[in-house]
């Protein structure tokens, strides 16, 4: 029998076993697949760094506005007309069939209505129109400047409107939201306002409201 067939010679000779050979191959495979102590140690370090990075992001968010935002709305004056109308337009509250400048002027001229505003320095950043008809209190034109949203200013304005109505003995506040305005409905729902089982009807008294 030839040496190759017996397994004791030729190209098929079995290599001698070297101690630790398989272990080195397996450890190398683990390192190739992302395992091993070195990678676990690196992941652990990254995990400890995450809270510090997150804290840094929160610190940057807190310092977005260098000055504290105003928290007390005040009544607007005639000189605020242009800024208030511009805010309403930026918030998408105006419609072609309503004259916002005329709405503002009427609210200030009547004894049972007003427009409350928020200021950040000289800039007008929020408004709400509020009125009392002797039966219900009504809110219109709640607006916050786009770059000042998500800071609770809308809630502050609504709170001021409610305080204005309570001071006049108004028992209930109501408002209207245009159909399809899901964001506004969600906002008022968080404030505790609920849909009413009524249908709003109306028509213009002026044949040509424009």
Automatic annotation (TrEMBL):
Keyword Lyase part of the UniProt annotation: no
InterPro entries: Acyl_CoA_acyltransferase (IPR016181), Bact_Acetyltransf (IPR050832), GNAT_dom (IPR000182)
GO molecular function, one term: acyltransferase activity, transferring groups other than amino-acyl groups
UniProt biased composition (Basic residues): 12-43, 54-67
Domain N-acetyltransferase as annotated: residue spans: 71-210
Keyword Transit peptide in annotation: no
UniProt keyword annotations, A-Z: Acyltransferase, Transferase
Pfam hit, one: Acetyltransf_1
Positions of the UniProt region annotated as Disordered: 1-76
Protein name in the entry: GNAT family acetyltransferase
Lineage of the organism: Bacteria, Pseudomonadati, Pseudomonadota, Alphaproteobacteria, Sphingomonadales
């Amino acid at each position: 029998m030839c040496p190759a067939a017996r397994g004791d010679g030729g190209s098929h000779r079995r290599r001698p076993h070297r101690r630790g050979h398989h272990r080195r191959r397996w450890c190398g495979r683990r390192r190739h697949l992302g395992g091993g102590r070195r990678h676990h140690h690196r992941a652990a370090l990254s995990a400890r760094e995450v809270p510090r990075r997150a804290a840094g992001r929160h610190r940057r968010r807190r310092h977005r506005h260098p000055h504290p935002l105003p928290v007390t709305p005040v009544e607007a004056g005639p000189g605020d007309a242009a800024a208030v109308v511009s805010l309403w337009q930026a918030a998408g509250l105006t419609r072609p069939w309503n004259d916002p400048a005329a709405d503002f002027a009427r609210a200030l001229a009547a004894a049972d209505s007003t427009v409350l505003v928020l200021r950040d320095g000289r800039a007008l950043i929020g408004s709400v129109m509020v009125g009392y008809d002797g039966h219900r209190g009504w809110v219109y034109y709640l607006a916050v400047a786009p770059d000042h949203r998500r800071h609770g200013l809308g809630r502050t304005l609504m709170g001021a409107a409610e305080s204005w109505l309570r001071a006049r003995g108004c028992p209930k506040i109501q408002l209207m939201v245009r159909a399809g305005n899901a964001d506004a409905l969600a906002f008022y729902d968080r404030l505790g306002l609920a849909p009413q089982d009524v249908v709003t009807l109306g028509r213009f008294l002026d044949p040509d409201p424009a």
